[in-house]
Amino acid sequence: MRTFESKDMSKKPQLKEGEFHPDAWARFEKFIRDVAKAGPQHRKPKTKARKSPVQRTKSKQMPTKSRDWLEAECLRLARLVLGGKEIQRVTIRRLSPKGTGPNWKVADIIPQPTPFVSGEVRDALAYLTGTFALEDERVK
Description:
The chain is about 40% helix and about 10% strand. It is α+β, with helices and mostly antiparallel strands. The chain has a domain at about 60-135.
């Protein structure tokens, strides 16, 4: 039966604190060259195909609402804004967009509120223009 003596088997020389290996700088330069040669490590592309924002908007059509309904809903939301209690009427105007964008916008707020309140009201109503489309009013 063999017995082994407990000796430090490492071949590395023991360094004192603050000392470096004699070839440390050469090893560092080699490492930097190798990293530079390897180039950037990019993520692997996902295999799942994603729809572009244009394809997503084409696939879902906005629900259509009548002019009266949209104006009434705009008036309701406008009155909820701080300083919008005095608003009596909101009118909308049809747009002719290219593609599937909103086909209407707020034309007038009666009586005209202060510029600050008007901006707040229009911000509150921006949600509706992206959610509902104005239905076609032409007689068939």
